[in-house]
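Two entries, shown back to back:
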Amino acid sequence: MARAGATCELGAVELSGLTISDATVFEGTGGSTNLEFVISRSDISIPVTVTVDTVAGTATSGTDYTAISSQEVTFAAAGAFTQTVSVAVATDSVVEADETLTVTLSNAQNASLTDADGLGTIQNDDSATLTLSAPAAVDEGDSGTLSYVFTAT
């Protein structure tokens, strides 16, 4: 039986904290490769949902990697502590600097965002080569100077 004027105090509900790891991968020269980001939660007692997006840094979406837009990741109650989000990386044989992108968590349901940004680094694994073509044979002679021309490619 309820009494008039009675109050009930509920304790604060602590939400599961969500974090995302950083990831690094060599870009490769053929086939496919992925940056693998791990999303972790601190509590498995309730279901959790979060939205994942990529944000370009020095890496270019569509050229260096395949963008993710509003991908939903769901953790079931009493389910896994972690889930992996993969970002496809374009392979090439171009010598270039390492490139970066960010994977961002947002719109968390039943969770707080403890670390919402994962830095992805695509490491260049290509190297430049230098080829010298030898000049035609020339007799050196007994006096003066002689010039040789090498072609570098």
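entry 2 starts here
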Amino acid sequence: MGWAWPMCARAATSERAELHGNMAPIAKQIVDSYGALTDIRGRRLSGGGLAALTLGFERGAVLIAAVGDDDTIRVSAVPEVEGDSLSQLFPWRDAIGRGVIWVWSLTNQQGYQDGSQLEFGKPAKHDQPGQLCVQIVIAASALRRQQITKSSA
């Protein structure tokens, strides 16, 4: 019998994470004020991985970037979306038209804030999944994303 991570589990924040910037104010703005996701773009590294994502919402935009010095994550408000379009790629195509209802800051066992998790609300189209939770983690100075699925456990 395998063990599964609880869906959208909260991770503890650490003193180290606080030094790299408290994500709580921008997370609250995304949930309370930004509205539905309208566009997502990425900036690629020379090796092919993603250095950053820009999420465009109805009323704002957010940059999620890898901090190469220590492989942590930085989330900040930006004036506009930039980069190559990723809106039609999995899992982002299922997030377009949906608002973010939860944002988590992920901290690893060494105290580094190296990830974020976004849960998107009500589906905008009939062919979108009911639950959509995307985790973004920094590894080797690049963003890695994965969709979190509901466990029956």
